[in-house]
Specification:
Length: 398
Amino acid sequence: MTVSEPIIRLAAKGDGVTASGRHVSGGVPGDTVDAEGKIAAGPHHIAPACRHFATCGGCQLQHADDAVLADFVRDRVANAARGQGLEPAELLAVHLSPPATRRRAGLHGLRTARGAVLGYREGGSHRVVDLAECPVLHPMLAALITPLRRFVAANGPKGMVGIDLTLADQGVDANLTQFPLEGLGPTEAALDFAREQGLARLTIDQGYGPETLWEPEPVTVTLSGVPVGLPPGAFLQATADAEARMVADAAEWLGDARMVADLFAGLGTFAFGLRQGRKVLAVEAERAAHLACKTAGALAGNTVLALHRDLFRNPLQPAELNRFDAVLLDPPRAGARAQVAEIAASTVARVVYVSCNPSSWARDAATLAEAGFRLTKLRPVGQFRWSTHVELVSLFER
């Protein structure tokens, strides 16, 4: 007689976990697994949306329905907080981005004897999955997969090339890396490709940074109604819907704050969303993003002022922070240990912390808690649909 165990939760990397602690690849809560590892699908186990699932390294959870996905995102965030002894006063509903909404992607291409392969890497491998479809991508990005494959087959160099795609206001912004264009022929072919596909911009990085080859008009991305210049390679939230949800939360939670510091501001994703009735100082280290934010801020009525500063090496000090009613920060995955320590030592009473890494966020949150802050609101965000990558927006008050 074979004894089966129910799968009760998902682990951080997407494996199903039984009550006894057994990890089962491909299992979701509600499934059962026998001693030989055979899974009996339960009510939350669904057919994957993509034929490449289980080979492509881009998605880990296409076999889980939305209820399981939401629980996974919520638990990753809530457990990170509890690991530091923090319990939010209000745990808000999970935001899950729908399929076909991802507006940026990093693909790989390789010319072969038969043409070319183009797609994401396999999980744990350098091998490229030759994409026939990608249900997470915005349709305008997905439509470029086949034309890009043909372009790489006809013009690609030996070796792997990188292809970064971003959806801008004017269309798709494409950047090719490790893709030398030697001579007039390849350059003309690249220009023809950009023109035929209606690209907003085509840049080529041959090892010295992106060089613009095609840009009929200046490329912008609209942030909370403000067109902002989009430098090649600039950071952008993965989906417009998740960006809108997080910006709306931040604007609501900051309430009557009239002077706000937006730290690690990038292009001004949050700064422009907070500007109504407020003055916002947008602080960013990356020079191109800072200049784009500064220019857009001037055109938007000077309610957003930009400051170029490396907050890792030179965080805002308590005397500077004390001028503000509230602080918003959205740091890289490493978190903001040095800057959070200065916030803790200041008189700032309200902090909105946006994070793409629950672990570094929880570490920083513990520092704020030690300084008297309470975690009053916490929203888990799953904008990287079907992946194990989880984000959040949170409010701390004292």
